[in-house]
Write a structure and sequence with these properties.
Length: 175
């Protein structure tokens, strides 16, 4: 199972992945160009080898976007609730996913990160909900600083994995 995490720089993509993989989140972090992480997890009694691609959010590396999309079977699109540009940026990425994966259904989850910065909020919760409705996907808001985040992230990745398992099962029935 391959999941790509997309979003602008400094929205917390790497920190979310570190928490899910059970790494300690570093206090300082160099901008990612591309990192792959692996984890074995069990979903409904099925052992899954999960590969997670952490991507660069800087425009300098957008030439890699086609590879990142072709790599994935599911996507987590992340924005920071205190950064309007990071929210607006995701529409174009989703459109690119749909264009490249036109014949294949790929689950997408929209995540508003940095909910601990409520007093700096630029994107209202309802805007995330409405975007997810328009896209037909799940939506969550969270903060990497929340202790229970690892439970949340497990659920987030679990939804992606469960969707992929169902899709693969249906495809085998159709063959």
């Amino acid at each position: 199972m391959k999941i790509t995490v997309l979003g602008k720089g400094i929205v917390g993509k790497s920190s979310m992945i570190f928490k899910y993989i059970d790494y300690n989140t570093p206090k300082e972090h160099d901008p990612t160009i591309e990192d792959k992480f692996s984890k074995v997890t069990v979903v409904n009694g099925i052992t899954c080898h999960v590969e997670i691609l952490d991507t660069a959010g800087q425009d300098d590396y957008q030439s890699l976007l086609n590879y990142w999309i072709s790599f994935a079977e599911a996507f987590i699109l992340v924005y920071a609730i205190n950064d309007r540009e990071s929210f607006d940026y995701l529409d174009e990425k989703r459109d690119r996913i749909l264009k490249m994966k036109k014949d294949v259904y790929c689950p997408i989850i929209l995540v508003g990160n940095k909910s601990d910065l409520e007093n700096q909020r630029k994107i209202q919760y309802d805007e995330g909900v409405n975007l997810a409705k328009r896209w037909g996907c799940y939506f969550f808001e969270t903060s990497v600083l929340v202790i229970k985040l690892s439970i949340f992230l497990f659920i987030l990745f679990y939804i992606s994995l469960k969707s992929l398992i169902i899709i693969k099962f249906i495809n085998t029935l159709l063959e």
